[in-house]
Specification:
alpha/beta, 5 strands, about 300 residues
Length: about 300
């Protein structure tokens, strides 16, 4: 076997092995998307009803609370960025980081100082490489988050919104994550968690034809809001983590399918080149045999004379 043919065969074997790996990863990601979608759907009713309850308490009382009260001139905000722990997911993490950068620039143009909170190793690495300060970071659960993970993430954010800015607190909470729309569409979005925009919730309820429930508050509206604040933030973060996980699996499945298809195309191209090299080698061998036979015949004819 010629040297060139051996090179092609080794490359075909390597690409074939890679294709098997990417195909397996594609199938694993596809199976996990379904589970992630179910979790997103299961978490949505609780988050919706909790938001309606908070809105009802806020609209039915004059309570001043970080959950619902707008600051006249906010100066400091917290931004929670959700990325992935692993790669091989196309532009999933980079799109979320770009959305966070756009939000950061907009907030800075408004004269607001931004405190960064990061979920996922990709976001931590991005900020670490640029030597930016990160208030808190969490890793190790982005592809399969649990409610306990959301509680851990929410704890320092709740503490920050309850503090005064002079003591290191913040006036607003924002979250940047990848919203799962469909298997083919995932959008990086930024959303303000706190203070809750009561007008927007009321408009959404009116659009859907819903009527906000009426509640009696015991012992007071402030105490009720204090109790609802951590639940609201945790539920919002949990829903965002679940949507981000579903988006990550969808992006990884799409990236692995593309890699598998590209590997198949490369194998076909290398096979054609290997066949051409083999044909050239056979042709050369035939030419050498014919040439040797012709030389032998001429030598025999010369000796007969």
């Amino acid at each position: 076997m010629g040297a060139q043919l051996r090179v092609y065969k080794r490359r075909i074997q390597a690409v074939t092995a890679t294709k098997k790996i990417t195909k397996a990863m594609e199938m694993i990601a596809a199976s996990r998307i379904v589970k992630a979608q179910r979790k997103v759907a299961a978490s949505q009713p609780y988050a919706t009803e909790l938001t309606r309850a908070v809105t009802a308490v806020a609209t039915g009382s004059n309570a001043k609370h970080p959950l619902t009260t707008e600051v006249d001139a906010p100066t400091r905000v917290a931004v929670l960025l959700v990325t992935s722990d692993r790669g091989l997911a196309g532009g999933y993490s980079s799109n979320a980081i770009k959305a966070a950068e756009r939000l950061r620039e907009r907030l800075a143009s408004e004269g607001k100082e931004v405190d960064a909170y990061i979920v996922g190793r990709k976001g931590v690495a991005y900020y670490g490489f640029r030597e930016r300060k990160v208030e808190e970071s969490w890793t190790g659960f982005t592809d399969n988050p649990a409610y306990g993970d959301a509680k851990r993430v929410a704890a320092p954010l709740i503490e920050a919104i309850q503090k005064d800015t002079a003591e290191g607190g913040v006036d607003e909470l924002h979250i940047v994550f990848t919203e799962f729309v469909s298997m083919m569409t995932q959008n990086a979005v930024d959303d303000r968690m706190l203070p809750l925009s009561l007008d927007e919730v009321a408009k959404e309820s009116t659009r859907k034809g819903e009527i906000l429930p009426l509640f009696d508050f015991e012992p007071s509206a402030e105490d009720v809001l204090d109790a609802l604040l951590p639940r609201y933030v945790e539920s919002r973060i949990y829903n965002a983590l679940l949507q981000a996980a579903a988006s990550e699996h969808a992006a990884r499945r799409r990236a692995m399918k593309s890699a598998t298809d590209n590997a198949g195309d490369l194998i076909k191209s290398l096979s054609r080149l290997a066949n051409a090299a083999r044909q050239a080698e056979i042709t050369q061998e035939i030419s050498e045999i014919v040439g040797g036979a012709s030389a032998l015949a001429d030598a025999t004819a010369g000796s007969d004379k």
